[in-house]
Amino acid sequence: MLSTRIDHLVVTAASLELGVEYVHRMLGVTLETGGEHPRMGTHNCLLRLGDALFLEVIAINPDAPHPGRSRWFPLDALNPDSQPRLATWVVRTNDIHAAVAVSPIPLGAIEPMTRGQLNWLITIPEDGGLPMDGVAPVFIEWQAQPHPAAKLQNLGCSLVRLEARHAEAEKLSGLLHPPYKLVWLPISRLRRVCANSGFRRAMS
Asked: What is the pTM of this model?
């Protein structure tokens, strides 16, 4: 049976340092170093939000060679003065090929990726873009257990809710399971609300 669950949130930044500082300013925590993505020339830092849920800050790795293709999460479009932002969200599935086959919108090719000892399959459009401006999720199928979030330090942050608004949000209704809420509004916006040490901050 096809299963889809939220896996992680993606914050893009012109540099890893700027992205980490942004999350620290918003939530008061310092992210852990993740690693490098050799096929994309990027690297990341991570924040645990649950046993199988995390937040990722990702940026171009200045020490890595250009991958010879468009990088994911439109990182090539960022300028040095671009502000960090919540770009999209990633949904975990037990069968990425089936999930792509039933998707009402194009999600891109299914590609193998690595970070250190981790291996996974993920959807990436040819131009590196984000379907529906990032309101539609990226799909991932991890190739190993336990989930990467289980190895991260618990800093007291958790996902309270995820809201996505888009003029064509109804296209996504068949992709997701509760507690996701999609609202049909004439705007495109993705907002993530986290709780940390008794307070809530919105990043949008």
From this structure: 0.89
